[in-house]
Amino acid sequence: MTEPHAANRREDLRLITGRGRYAADWNLPGQLHACFLRSDRAHAEIVALDAGPALKCRGVVAVYTGADAIAAGYTQFPNLMTFKGRSGAEILKPARPVLAAGKVRFVGETVAMVVAESALAAQDALGAIVIEYRDLPPVVTTQDALAAGASQLHANIPGNLCFEWESGDAAAVARAFAEAAHVTRLKPITTRVAPNPMEPRACVINYDAASDSYDIYSPSQGINMLRRQFSVLTGVPEEKLRLHLHDTGGSFGQRSAVYPEYAAQMIAAKQLGRPVKWVASRSECFMSDSHGRAIDITGELALDRDGRFLAARYEFDCDMGAYLTPTGCVSHLRNPATCMTGVYRIPALYGSFRVVLTNTVPVAAYRGAGRPDIAYAVERLVDQAATELNIDRDELRRRNFIPLDAFPYKTPTMGVYEQSDFAGCLDKALKAADWNGFAPRRAAAVKRGKLRGIGMATVIEGTGAGIYPKDQIAIEFDAQGRLMVYTVSLSQGQSHETTFAAIVAQTLGVAPEAVTLRQSVQGKELIGNHTGGSRSLVGAGSVCKIAAQKLIEQARPLAAEELELEPSQLDYAAGAFRQRGGEKMIGLLDLARRHAGRNPHPLNLVAEGTVGSTFPNGCHIAEVEVDPETGVTEIVSYVAVDDCGNVINHSVVEGQIHGGVTQGAGQVFGEHAMYDRGSGQLLTGSFSDYFMPRAGFIRDIKMNEHPVPSKLNVLGAKGVGESGCTASLPTLANATLDALRPLGIQHLDMPLTPSKLWHAMQAAKPE
Amino acid sequence: MTKIEITVNGARHSREVEDRTLLVDLLRDQLGLTGTHVGCDTSQCGCCTVHVNGRALKSCTMLAVQANGAEVVTIEGMAQGGKLHPVQQAFTDCHALQCGFCTPGMIMAVTALLRDNPHPSDEEIYHGLEGNLCRCTGYINIVKAVKQVAQTPR
Amino acid sequence: MFEFKYLQAKTLSEAGAFVAANPDAKLLAGGMTLIPTLKQRLAQPSHLVDIGGLPELQGIEVKDGRLVLGAATRHQEVAASPVVGKALPALAYLAAQIGDPQVRNRGTIGGSVANNDPAADYPAAVLALGATIVTTRREIAADDFFQGMFSTALEEGEIIVRLSFPLPQRAAYMKFPHPASGYAMTGVFVAETKTGIRVAVTGAGPGVFRWSDAESALAKKLHPAALDALAVAADDLNEDIHATREYRANLVKVMAKRAVQKLLEN
Question: Which ranges in chain B are annotated with CATH 3.10.20.30?
Answer without folding.
Answer: 2-77
